[in-house]
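Sequence design from tokenized structure. All designs in this work follow the same two-part layout: the structure record, then the generated sequence. An example of the structure record is given first.
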């Protein structure tokens, strides 16, 4: 079984029906470590050694967050800037993450249509996540397709339940079949 680390970042979790529901699923999950970055680092003072140790202990790193201004919340960027150091995560001597997998679980306020070539945003969500894919590549990691929940502002309770079930299944697949590209699921 692959060991999964969820690096969670949501600066307004109390307002998120979707992420609260998804996180509820983690209570039943095994082989998953949950790290709430905003809870742990409200002042953005990241413990680099601790975070690097967490990464070394896991096979799959999930960056879970809402899509903010076509990217991740600020703490994810701060985490990437500080934790993925030259000589440790990348560079001629930076091999600590080689062979691991990075994937994202992202929620979007807009619909899947809004995130298409014809939609309001003129691009797919995967296009906005390309910097994360390139970061994984630079660090010698595989980058898997993201798990995306669309239209979060208008989802019904039933749709959130469906997203939660899909998320639980996705996490199960990640832990039991780490070599398969089990991501790429979308919920609308």
């Amino acid at each position: 079984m692959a060991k999964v680390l969820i690096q969670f970042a949501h600066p307004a979790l109390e307002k998120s029906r979707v992420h609260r529901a998804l996180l509820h699923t983690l209570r039943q999950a095994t082989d998953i470590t949950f790290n709430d970055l905003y809870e742990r680092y409200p002042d953005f003072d990241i413990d680099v050694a601790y975070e690097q140790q967490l990464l070394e202990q896991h096979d799959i790193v999930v960056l879970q967050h809402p899509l903010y201004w076509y990217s991740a919340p600020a703490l994810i960027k701060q985490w990437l800037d500080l934790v993925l150091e030259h000589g440790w995560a990348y560079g001629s001597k930076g091999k600590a993450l080689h062979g691991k997998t990075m994937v994202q679980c992202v929620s979007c306020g807009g619909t899947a249509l809004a995130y298409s070539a014809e939609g309001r945003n003129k691009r797919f969500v995967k296009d906005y996540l390309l910097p994360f894919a390139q970061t994984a590549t630079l660090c010698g990691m595989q980058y898997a397709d993201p798990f995306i929940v669309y239209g979060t502002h208008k989802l019904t309770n039933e749709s959130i339940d469906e997203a939660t079930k899909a998320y639980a299944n996705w996490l199960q697949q990640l832990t039991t079949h780490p070599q398969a590209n089990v991501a790429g699921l979308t919920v609308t």
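The CA atoms of residues 71 and 128 lie 6 Å apart. We note this feature because it recurs in several other targets discussed in the main text.
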